[in-house]
Amino acid sequence: MNNFETIETRVAQVRAELAMQELDAFIIPHDDEHLGEYIPAYAERLDWVTGFNGSAGLAILLADRAALFVDGRYTVQARMQAPASLFEFLHLIEQPHVQWLAEQLPAGARVGFDPRLHSLTWYRTAQAVLADHGIELVRVTENPIDLHWHDRPAAGKAPVILYSEALAGQSSEAKRELLASDLRKRGLDAVLLTQAEPINWLLNVRGRDIERLPVVLGFAVLYANSTMDFFVDTDKLDCFAFNQHVGQDVSVYPIDKLGDVLQRIGEDQQKVLADPNTANAWTQLIMEDAGAMLVAGLDPTMLPKACKNDIELSGIRAAHLRDGVAMTRFLAWLDRLIASGEFEGVDEGTLAEQVEAFRREQAHYVEPSFDTISALGPNAAMCHYRHTNGTPRLFGQDSLYLVDSGGQYLDGTTDITRTVKVGDVRDEHKAMFTRVLQGHIALDQVRFPHGTAGIQLDVLARLPLWQAGYNYDHGTGHGVGHFLSVHEGPQRIAPKGSMVALQPGMVLSNEPGYYREDGFGIRCENLVVVTELEPVGELPMLGFERLTYVPFDTRLIDRSLLSPAEFRWINEYHAEVYRRLSPLLEGEDLSWLEQATSLI
Amino acid sequence: MNNFETIETRVAQVRAELAMQELDAFIIPHDDEHLGEYIPAYAERLDWVTGFNGSAGLAILLADRAALFVDGRYTVQARMQAPASLFEFLHLIEQPHVQWLAEQLPAGARVGFDPRLHSLTWYRTAQAVLADHGIELVRVTENPIDLHWHDRPAAGKAPVILYSEALAGQSSEAKRELLASDLRKRGLDAVLLTQAEPINWLLNVRGRDIERLPVVLGFAVLYANSTMDFFVDTDKLDCFAFNQHVGQDVSVYPIDKLGDVLQRIGEDQQKVLADPNTANAWTQLIMEDAGAMLVAGLDPTMLPKACKNDIELSGIRAAHLRDGVAMTRFLAWLDRLIASGEFEGVDEGTLAEQVEAFRREQAHYVEPSFDTISALGPNAAMCHYRHTNGTPRLFGQDSLYLVDSGGQYLDGTTDITRTVKVGDVRDEHKAMFTRVLQGHIALDQVRFPHGTAGIQLDVLARLPLWQAGYNYDHGTGHGVGHFLSVHEGPQRIAPKGSMVALQPGMVLSNEPGYYREDGFGIRCENLVVVTELEPVGELPMLGFERLTYVPFDTRLIDRSLLSPAEFRWINEYHAEVYRRLSPLLEGEDLSWLEQATSLI
């Protein structure tokens, strides 16, 4: 971690740079130029200039003051990492930063920003708000931080993974032609793609440029005639093999040619689809300034990428089976650890490493799909707890342990949460666990007509908690990619969530929870896939096929709260867990599984 | 009904008028200048020119052709009422009429419209679409229909009802000051109000200008200093008594002064809030053209009007009790009719009249809150069936009867649907009735946290149907006014429904249904009010207090489908029905109630 003196020096360097460029302020978001959830080390500008290394935030440097905006997850961490002598700490959501900035500066002021690191929507809104106050928003051509970040990590050079059709289930040509024909139908000439997942999905490639997200970073333009320009660090690929893989109508360019190509597209007055919320301002403004007509719209890869094909689903099911073996071995190991009584020095970190160790033994395992949440007792009450942000809590003093983890396998991405008994439990622990599980079961069992959106189903997972006067403050389900991001849209099950209809092949988490501040935390999470059900009644109906098969801790169930249908669900689920996993386990692990899946 | 020759003459007259004004087309919506759900007889221009008298639709006359746009409810009725020799029949939703118009006319064409009868949003969109095709949208100053409609009904002269604070629960002054202080906070000078319900609510007045909606029609402007201009047919009120009632800072103007005042507001360059979706284009364009700054926003009366105060709720409860007596007497009468075997000549119309007759005997009854749906057998499968649109079906041949009706009482508005056994029923009738009732019960019983919107709860009413492979194609709950419209926003429980949070005091219907085409129809509807619940657990929760107490037909229940909690709900509901209604009934009606509410 940077110490405070280093931060002071860096802030001074950036301020000197601003003075030279006659800027009164500069905005430093956490985002990189792809505006995705994860960023590579060389893009951690916010960390470099503030010391704060959380996954979301934004800083603003003025000549004589500075502010760091973070959300509720990071209020403590930000104060620990960034010097209060330099930064005011403000709330990212409750204190809109552009409004704040407008109030700090006089009319005539000039605010710098790097157009590569902000969406076009941000730019248009910020420009309008600042203009109302007579303040100018100035695009910098070179980021002042980059000029002074001398020990900046180099970008990775991990080679592009040519992801076979046997895993992807559809050729890149077929995907491109599908999108291109849609462009033609809409009278569009091209679509700009700037996020990693759409491009990697569309080209059937993967990479190792970011931790947790197995992608190669780049930019792309797909044209209505199905040809495509791909902008990437060309050191990462063998062009001949790449074009063999994706087809000859994909042209590879080094990333620094992106501007020239966008300029040419503009000069040709093309009609270009781009998502102003996810594509950076720089790429779109180059085109627009040169004469292109920008058509704002959702990234057209989102929906086809979300609806997994049969081959992808086979891979996802296989990955979940292996992941189930790893998780089950971990849970068995954990019970043996408790039984042994020998857990001196064991802490949340030890447990997380053990989960990872079991996953590493599984075929096709690549890396965790996100940083494991390994939380004992009160730590589990913080939804986004990371034991690595402080001193991990020691094992042995708590009733409940919550572990939320997942794996990137070559054939699929997993995400599972189990809450387990690791000490004496009270009736209240059992009652709350049971209500969470009841919500999980209700959502798992729903049948719904075509056209139903996630926002409509969310209540099913909450109802057992609501009826007892409780709730949880997060969504119930997020989309999950196929050996891609563990968080993907457009599908989502949440109170304010997506209005997009759930469609066959969409993978989602089902993860209700309950959090008692300073007490304990509970979450029950499986992944499911939307599927056509056998018809009954008169309408074709959709439902969820379960992907995750790992025992829930039946020692935490309050049987008096369960309906006969819920008893049946639990016993049938565990019978199926046993049927699937028992051939893949042996010895103590197998005996543990037998007991863990026995009838309740 | 007009015969086809009359329609031909009228269309020819309007076409001649269009030719004189050099217009190539003219658009005739169903709406009047208030753009509300109900319109007075003198505003039935669409009926006059087409013969079609449904509650929604739009016609377009061109020089040599014409089209009538109606929605799925009215496809049959429109073809019966409007001459096919003159009109093409198009779908109001699936065939956007502006797009259609743009395709019929050459560039340079001129399309006339009456800006009083369209919203500003419609105008802006239509103008943009037509301009894309080089077509001009021309505001007519005098509606060509009005010029030729010589036997046009006069507007009613029913006097304004000064609605007492004892019924309204809050003075008009207090309501106006609340809204005005919000205008001041938002830096606005005024708000334009054009719909009947907001104005009648705000001034604590009612009227008899429209059937089914007890309002006086008018326009109003509320200013940030709490003064108000009210534009109304001044014959309808005694100005002295009116100002005694509403306070001295409301100025009354005849309606024809509206333009002058809006013009002056514009010239004063005021910042005026108006809802471009519900206020007509004419009112807003006058202001804008004269220099006003229009601020588009939701009508600010919507939310306070929807959240009923304690006095309003007392009235609503009392009205429901009387309405329950009327409905129960009707249901008892119906069973006696069946038992008598003497129902020759009885049809859906007879039954509807009988419902109305029992309501008329109740204190404070004014009129039906909407046209009664009285539907036997297959007719009930049409959600919006009206026996008055054709030959009413004769009683005696069907299994089920559906009656959806409501009353306007001086102290509240009711809306109730019951489905009852009127012949031999099959297991399937019982299974479907039971599933509908289970959905009704689930929604009735939900507890939900503050911030929950209707769209989140809708699924609860559908789940028992979905799980069996069925659904219904309408929303589950609409808002209901207080001696005002039986349909009000912003609250709504529906799949695509309102994102507005449900708040204490909001009245809603709970009306799941099931419709078997050409077979039968089922709906179970009570009204409920959102209320704070006694706290359990750790969060304050909201829930529904039932307003409607009338027996459900337990002869239609398939007990094998019910959970213990559902049995309990039905028996507790019926015990409460008995407790409330038995003191108000006697003789055969009381014995019927006793049997109808006995334990199942």
UniProtKB/TrEMBL annotation, chains A, B:
Signal peptide residues on this chain, from the entry's feature table: none
UniProt-recorded name of the protein: X-Pro aminopeptidase
Gene Ontology CC entries for this record: cytoplasm
Ranges of residues in domain Peptidase M24 C-terminal: 540-598
Keywords assigned by UniProt, alphabetized: Aminopeptidase, Hydrolase, Metal-binding, Protease
PANTHER family: XAA-PRO AMINOPEPTIDASE 1
An MF annotation (GO) of this entry: metal ion binding
Organism field: Aeromonas cavernicola
Pfam family, any one: Creatinase_N
Keyword Transmembrane in record: no
Species classification: Bacteria, Pseudomonadati, Pseudomonadota, Gammaproteobacteria, Aeromonadales
Homology family: Belongs to the peptidase M24B family.
Protease found in the keyword field: yes
Domain Creatinase N-terminal, chain residue ranges per copy: 10-142
Classification via CDD domains: APP (cd01085)
Annotated Peptidase M24 domain residues: 315-532
